[in-house]
Amino acid sequence: MSETCGATFIVALKKAMDEAVRRGVPFEAARDFMLGHINVQLAIVFEQIDWKMSEGAYRVIEKATTRIFQPDWLNVFDPKEVLDSVRDICQAKSK
pLDDT by residue (tens digit) across 33-49? Predict the structure, then answer.
């Protein structure tokens, strides 16, 4: 779960930030905006604070989810896929 989803999503966030920078957003602004929002959004989604995102944010999340994720993405938790993932982790060399 942590590598397959958590690390993958984090790498995607970094790629999204890099794309914003490539399109003209200053690096420091993009990084500070991304990291600041991630902290608050994690706290909201994981119910660490009693707060909600705006209705607009939830609307964007719903639309983006169908654009960004494959409909069958939760199949990464199928036993065979988990076993394959564990094998990949154990056999990989550090970069």
Answer: 999 999 999 999 999 99
Q: How far apart, in Å, do the first and last CA atoms of the chain sit?
A: 21
d(CA 82, CA 65): 23
Which value, to the nearest 10 degrees, does the dihedral of the CA atoms of residues 34, 38, 41, 43 take?
Answer: -150
> How far apart are alpha carbons 39 and 89 in whole angstroms?
28
- Enumerate residue ranges in the chain where pLDDT < 70: 95
Cα 4 to Cα 10, 19, 49, 85, distances in angstroms: 10, 22, 26, 8
Query: What letter does residue 1 receive in the DSSP assignment?
Result: -
